[in-house]
Each structure stands twice: as structure tokens, then as C-alpha cells.
Design goal:
475 residues, 7-stranded antiparallel beta sheet, 7-stranded mixed beta sheet, globular
Length: 475
């Protein structure tokens, strides 16, 4: 396995923050399946912000928030906590959302700086939030877009809280508004209670490059809002673009962000030239993100004698200056199926995470059909995979749904008291991959090669599943 590292850590213009770029991959490629998967790791460091920040709180105040009363109380407390967490002079506003959107603070449709006076007045307004009316989230986002419009150079983020279904507007209206907002600001969303649609929240945050999650315990909402505000206003780079340049014998098949959230970015790729693909990765702070790149190759351009460069990866600031890279993506042709099928540890980890997410989602679908046996089977498989990965967060979510008898084999029993919010948490957690440290490369396993009984593909000793057809070797 090979990890290619840029020769020097790059910095954005003005030396505000360091950016580190690496590529991890297996360079051996089979002529029968000429493709290269590679994990791109980007690490941003703390520094002086290159742009000011702006935040809008979108609080559901529909009639359903009034029962049980703990929901609206938690929303008020969370809004107060978020306002307290906004850094000095960050612009902010508080929006009250029902079947329409209205300003809770300030009274006019504008953003105000987080001075002591504005914070105090905004917290008073938050404590007066009242529940009445319907739910039309598209109108809430439209008002956020209007508020942000006068601040094009700010790093902009919205937080949306809801407890119900988006029943006061048609689905196409929300989707049209999401299309208008995409690229202008990011948005995290939280669902509170047991009667809301997690798929709508996921659609919203996927479009707006944020994270959707369930509020499992209302008492935890305020702390969650503080964490979101800290992350949103702690960005130091307003924008980074990931550029992938390929050789004439290589093309980009797909690009996913895999950590901290699983997002298919293939459709977002822009192609300035026939050999260049770029994607906007948004604002950055002191954080690590990982992307899985898949390249299709023409074997005629490869060599069995040596590694050749099939592409390169760079990071660009908003002004187009290269701030990290280029880092090469390499390939070497081989007829040895053992060499070509041995996956890089990072790539292998994300393939298993894909299985984990699929099992968590399949369990939720089965539970929605009242098929308890299938739900138990899928969530048991999810427990097994999460245990294999050491994914403590996924296990924490799954244990709300199942009693675990044997985590290693996935033997579980469905809990009789599963609440909808617990199932929502597992569904939305299926795309939360965390920011775990990169897995260390493991020594190659010893022993004979393994021949798949289904497709006859040969894999190296220690392989747990066939990389071609998916047949597991440990069952």
C-alpha cells in the first residue's frame, strides 16, 4: 500500500492556516478491472479566519411544538445556548418558522452583530417563542437566503430545528428552494420528538452540505446547538476547491466525501477542461475530511515495469491559488490478481463502512414495515460491522434499538420499547462516518491465497470478502 504526501504543507493566501493533503492507495491494477480507488485526506489547521461569519437560527414554532411542552422549552433553551455561543461580532438572526417565516430577532429582516446588547435582546426573544401554525421549511430557508444575501463574503451557516412533517408546502417547493440555497450557505438540521420525517431533513442537509440528526434526549439539545455554533463560526478558510487532473488514459468515475459524513459528490463535479474535475468543499476549520476517488483507466497507457502517474490532486483557495499539492495518483499494471485485489487499509475501511450504513438503513426500512425479524437481522449485521470497525458512535446508536448478546457475531435481540426517534437516529447515523484516525496499515496476513467459490477471483490470505462479487469468506 502506498501513501503519497505533498512535499510541504500548503498554506492559504496570507498564511492564515495550514492545509495538509495526502493520497492513500494500492497502485497495482488488473487489466481485467482497470480502476484505481484512492482515499484523499485533507487536514485543515487552526488559524486566523480569512472571512467573517454569519449564523441564522431557524426554529420550528408550529402548533405541534407545544406538546409535550418539553419540546418548545428545549427549543427555547437551545436557541439561548446558541446565541450565547456566537462569537463577538459574528452576524446572526433568530427566525420563527411556521407555515411562513418571520423574524424573532431582530424585528427587521437583517443580521446583527453579536454584541452584548444584541445577545441579551435575542435571548429574551428566544424565551418568548410560542407554538402556533403549520410547517413550511422552504419559507424558513428562503428567509435565511434573504438574510445572507447582503453578506456574500461571509462564511454562512443555518441551524434548523423541527418536530414535524413539512405539511404546509408541496415537496417540490422545498426542493426548489434548496436548489436556490445550495452553494450560498450550509445548514445543519435537527429533528425533535417522534413525529418528523428524517428523509426530508437528510435531503435538506445533503443539498446544503450539513448534517441531519435526531434529538434523542431533549436535555441534550442546548449542548448540541453550542457545538454546531462553535464549529460553524470556527472556520478559518472561506472556501477550498478540490481539483483532480487526469492523464489522457484516465477518467474520473466517482468522488465521495466519506468522512465525517458520507456524501456522493460525483454530481457536483465541474469540468473546466476535459482532463480536469473540480468540486467546492466549502469552508474549513481545524478538521479532517476524507474523500474516496475512483478513476477508470485505459490499460494501454499503463506499464507493468513501473508505476506511472494517472492523475494528480490539488487544493485551491477561492482566488485560484494552489494551497496544497499536487499529489500524484499512481498505477502499475499487473497480471497478479493477489496484488491487484489487495485493498489499501483506508479504502477497505470505507467499503466496510458502506456495508454498515446499508445495514443500518435496511433495518430502519424493515422496522417501518413492522418486519421485526428482518429489522433484527439487519441491525445485528450492523452491530457486527460496527464492532469490526471499532465505530463506538454507531454502536451507541444501535444499542438503543437492540440488546447485544454477541457483538462480534452480531447476535442481537430487538428491544420492545424502540421509540421512533431512536430509529431516526440510526437511519441518519448511517451516513455519519465520524473523524476517526486513519487506520494503521496492517502486516500482510500469511497463509494460502483464497479462491472465491462464487466467481473464482483469487484474493490474498486474510481477506474477509471477495472484492469482485462480495462473497464473505468468514461465514
Amino acid at each position: 500500500m502506498v501513501t503519497h504526501e505533498n512535499p510541504a504543507t500548503g498554506r492559504d493566501p496570507g498564511s492564515r492556516a495550514a492545509v495538509d493533503l495526502r493520497v492513500s492507495q494500492n497502485t497495482y491494477v488488473s487489466a481485467a478491472d482497470p480502476a484505481v480507488p484512492a482515499v484523499i485526506t485533507v487536514r485543515g489547521a487552526a488559524g486566523h479566519p480569512s472571512a467573517a461569519s454569519a449564523v441564522v437560527l431557524l426554529m420550528d414554532c408550529s402548533a405541534s411544538m407545544d406538546w409535550p411542552p418539553s419540546k418548545i422549552a428545549a427549543a427555547r433553551q437551545a436557541a439561548v445556548a446558541a446565541i450565547d455561543a456566537v462569537r463577538d461580532d459574528v452576524l446572526f438572526a433568530l427566525v420563527q418558522g411556521t407555515e411562513s417565516a418571520s423574524m424573532a430577532y431582530p424585528a427587521e429582516a437583517r443580521l446583527v452583530p453579536a454584541t452584548p446588547e444584541h445577545r441579551s435582546a435575542a435571548k429574551s426573544a428566544a424565551r418568548r417563542l410560542a407554538a402556533a401554525g403549520g410547517t413550511a421549511m422552504g419559507t424558513w430557508l428562503a428567509l435565511a437566503r434573504k438574510l445572507f444575501a447582503n453578506h456574500p463574503d461571509h462564511i454562512k451557516h443555518a441551524i434548523l430545528l423541527t418536530d414535524g412533517h413539512n405539511q404546509s408546502e408541496a415537496g417540490w417547493v422545498l426542493r426548489a428552494e434548496l436548489a436556490k440555497c445550495a452553494g450560498l450557505f450550509t445548514c445543519d438540521a435537527r429533528g425533535i420528538g417522534d413525529d418528523w420525517d428524517p428523509l426530508v431533513l437528510r435531503e435538506t442537509t445533503t443539498a446544503l452540505r450539513g448534517r441531519a440528526d435526531a434529538v434523542v434526549a431533549e436535555a441534550d439539545l442546548a449542548a448540541d446547538f453550542r457545538r454546531v455554533i462553535d464549529a460553524a463560526t470556527g472556520k478559518v478558510l472561506a472556501r477550498l476547491r478540490l481539483r483532480i487532473t487526469t492523464m489522457p488514459y484516465a477518467t474520473v468515475r466517482a468522488l465521495w466525501q466519506k468522512s465525517p459524513d458520507d456524501v456522493d459528490m460525483t454530481g457536483d463535479l465541474q469540468r473546466p477542461t476535459t482532463r480536469t474535475a473540480e468540486v467546492d468543499t466549502g469552508a474549513w476549520g481545524a478538521e479532517t475530511r476524507e474523500f474516496l476517488l475512483s478513476l477508470d483507466l485505459d490499460p494501454a497507457g499503463l506499464s507493468a515495469a513501473e508505476e506511472v502517474q494517472v492523475g494528480r490532486v490539488e487544493l485551491l483557495a477561492s482566488d485560484g491559488e494552489v494551497v496544497a499539492g499536487p499529489v500524484a495518483v499512481l498505477a502499475r499494471l499487473t497480471a497478479d490478481e493477489v496484488l491487484s485485489s489487495r485493498l489499501d487499509p483506508k479504502v477497505q475501511s470505507y467499503l466496510v463502512r458502506d456495508e454498515l450504513g446499508a445495514a443500518m438503513t435496511a433495518g430502519w426500512n424493515a422496522h417501518g414495515r413492522d418486519d421485526t425479524a428482518e429489522a433484527q437481522r439487519h441491525w445485528g449485521e450492523a452491530v457486527r460491522l460496527a464492532t469490526e470497525l471499532g465505530d463506538a458512535e454507531a454502536l451507541h446508536r444501535l444499542r438503543r434499538l437492540v440488546e447485544v448478546d454477541d457483538a462480534r457475531t452480531g447476535r442481537v435481540r430487538l428491544r420492545p420499547d424502540v421509540r421512533p426517534r431512536d430509529a431516526f437516529s440510526v437511519l441518519l447515523g448511517a451516513t455519519i462516518t465520524g473523524a476517526d484516525p486513519p487506520p494503521a496499515a496492517q502486516p500482510a496476513a500469511t497463509g494460502p491465497n483464497i479462491t472465491c467459490g462464487t466467481c473464482q477471483r483469487i484474493s490474498p490470505a486474510g481477506t474477509t470478502a471477495c472484492p469482485q462479487c462480495g462473497t464473505r469468506f468468514d461465514q
